[in-house]
Hints:
Helix content is about 35%, strand content about 30%. By secondary structure, the protein is α+β, with helices and mostly antiparallel strands. The protein has one domain. It has an 8-stranded mixed beta sheet. It is globular and about 50 Å long. The termini are far apart.
Amino acid sequence: MKSIANILLVAMLIISVGNLRAAPANAYEKSVEKEKAEKTLVKAVIALDNIMEDPENRIPESLINESEGIVIFPRAIKVAIGAWGGQGGRGIAMIRKEDGTWSNPFFVTLGEGSLGIQIGAQSSDIILLFKHRIDILEIDEAEIMLGGDISVAAGPHGKGSSSDTDIKFESEIYSYSRSKGLFAGASLAGGVLSYNEMVNESLYDKDEINTEDIFYGIETPYNDDVNNLIEALNMYDD
């Protein structure tokens, strides 16, 4: 039991450090962050496939088609011991542009603190579908608290049938996840989405880059990894 507690404490420390504002990075640090960003893009495709291939968690393709934005967190981690809990992960956010095509991604961080007697550990692929693109565009200006600043609900699931087309977007955000591990009462309510400035600057090799720059000022797709992610989305875009 002691060894499990130690593992959970280390995981919580990683989450806490990951949610801190990063100091200005040197060239080596940016190179490392760029490599991590490219790996996250690859993992995002896998996370999308994992959820869409799971009959219990599959997202109705009609909702993907109707959504104006998407956030994908591959292997987000949630841990808790006693009265302290936390969730963390690095993910990507994209919007559907006015012409119907998917944009380049920018990187976001998921952080969460919770209270209550609880214990557990869980690794989840998490996908958030946004009804309005403006909610994603503004993440670089202010953090978003899920369930606070903007409503979030567990999304309806699709079975791959024609009846999926009857499912309508009735929440500002629909959440989907596929988890490994055990955690009592896991929820995205209270989770905070924030703009990961250092990773975005590292991937796109630009200083002080914002969402408008990434979505509209840089050629899409930016690289092969981005192209693979867009192609994966298009495959499930009804």
